[in-house]
């Protein structure tokens, strides 16, 4: 069985929310805190959710350098996601999810 790993940096970081979205107890998953280096987190204009962008793009938009701590996105790495879990996550996220 194919398993997928995904990095979450918004509400899906919270196990209770993740379990509700994937419609199971998540017993097959492993979660750990993770850092995404050289990325920045931003509010998405007109939306209630955040987005991330490579620091190089953020630096150009902001026309300034950022502190190292601001060039890191804190999140959760979830491993062991099934194809069904990912399908539910895709439905929840709509077309906003972008795999890296």
What does this entry look like structurally?
The protein has 100 residues and is α+β, with helices and mostly antiparallel strands. It has one domain (4-96): Gamma-glutamyl cyclotransferase-like (Hypothetical upf0131 protein ytfp). Helices cover 27% and strands 33% of the residues. The chain contains three helices and five strands; from the N terminus they run βαβββαβα. The chain has a three-stranded antiparallel beta sheet with strand order 1-5-2. A two-stranded antiparallel ribbon has the order 3-4. Strand 3 and strand 4 form a beta hairpin. The longest helix is centred in the last third of the chain and has 11 residues, at 83-93. It is elongated, with a radius of gyration of 15 Å. It starts with a strand and ends in a 7-residue tail after the last helix. 11% of the residues are buried.
CATH class: Alpha Beta
Count of distinct strands:
5
Look at the structure and name the CATH superfamily.
Gamma-glutamyl cyclotransferase-like
What structural class do the secondary elements suggest?
alpha+beta
Measured on Cα atoms, how large is the radius of gyration?
Answer: 15 Å
Task: Specify the number of helices.
Answer: 3
Count of domain modules: 1
Low-confidence stretches: none
Q: Multimeric state of these chains?
A: single chain
Could you describe the largest sheet, including whether it forms a barrel? 3 strands, antiparallel
Which outline best applies? elongated
Proportion in β-strands? 25-35%
Instruction: Tell me which CATH architecture applies here.
Output: Roll
**What's the CATH topology name?**
Hypothetical upf0131 protein ytfp
Note the run of SSEs as H and E: EHEEEHEH
Helix percentage: 25-40%
Which whole number gives the mean pLDDT? 90
How far the N terminus sits from the C terminus, by CA atoms, comes to: 21 Å
């Amino acid at each position: 069985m194919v398993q997928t790993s995904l990095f979450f940096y918004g509400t899906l970081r919270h196990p209770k929310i993740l379990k509700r979205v994937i419609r199971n107890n998540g017993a097959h998953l492993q979660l750990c805190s993770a850092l995404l280096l050289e990325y920045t987190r931003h509010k998405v204009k007109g939306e209630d959710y955040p987005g991330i962008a490579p620091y190089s793009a953020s630096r150009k938009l902001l026309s300034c350098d950022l502190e190292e701590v601001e060039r890191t996105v804190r999140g959760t790495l979830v491993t062991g996601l099934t194809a069904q879990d990912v399908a539910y996550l895709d439905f929840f996220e709509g077309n906003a999810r972008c795999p890296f």
